[in-house]
Amino acid sequence: MAEYKLYYFYVRGKGQVIRYVLEDNDVSFEDIVVPLWSEEIKQRCLSNQGLYSEDFANFKPDWQSKEWQELKPKTTFGQLPYLTGPNGLEIAECYAILRYFGRKLNLYGNNDIEAAKIDMLLERENQTITEIFKSLFVKQDNSARIESTKICDTLVIFQKLLEKNNKGEGYFVGDKVSIADYAMLDLLDACISLSSTMLDAYPTLKAFYNRMASREKIAACKATEKYKSFYIAGNLGLK
Ligand SMILES: N[C@@H](CCC(=O)N[C@@H](CS)C(=O)NCC(=O)O)C(=O)O
Fold this sequence. Notes:
One of its GO terms (cellular component) is cytosol. GO terms for molecular function: glutathione transferase activity. The structure is a single chain. With 239 residues, the chain is of the alpha+beta class. The chain has two domains: 4-104, Glutaredoxin (3-Layer(aba) Sandwich), CATH 3.40.30.10; 112-219, Up-down Bundle (Glutathione S-transferase Yfyf (Class Pi), Chain A, domain 2). It is 50% helix and 8% strand. The chain is built from eleven helices and four strands, in the order βαβααββαααααααα. It has a four-stranded mixed sheet, covered by helices on one side. Helix 1 crosses helix 8 (179-194) and helix 5 (112-136) packs parallel to helix 8. The structure holds glutathione.
């Protein structure tokens, strides 16, 4: 029986970074993919119509799947991701789960300074990917999303920070992979969803992305039909 259960929806959203960490570090876990929407709403999301901020004014609980309506009140904050584990462990909030595994799996740097740098990157990465998610709820094309989130300015800074460590040839912090690297991989996945050529302007970041994405277990995860079926977020059909 798996040691942990990770509950998240059929999207990458705020769950994929945790899936990456667990897959890449051989953690025994059950990846419980919870349907978010009723079939009708799901089809609407995946069609060109999408589901945008203004649509939520008419939100009805039965838009959500029966499974999610049942599970929601049992989770800590009524949202996913949500993790359960040994000795009654229950953790909600993506970055709390990420940091838990960071400490447990030695993915949190070699000392306090490295840990602080990892925290710094996680904070800004979270802010950035959250802006991207918010932009998906606005009816606009992807170039307007790239413009409005100022993602390109942030990528310039992330690339400079990467280049300051080991000439950008390794990881973001120190000499071994950390939770910041998995978070960056997930962010860069989101950037590529907005524009397949987006990383071309940032060669060091692009090389980092390719190194992370081609780690054996990450590549295997990305090659599964399950992963390939995931959208960037639950409100529209954008992979
Ligand atoms: N601050 C939370 C946000 C979690 C969150 O927004 N979860 C969304 C999916 S990404 C959710 O559960 N939506 C369904 C709902 O609220 O009923 C985190 O970072 O984990």
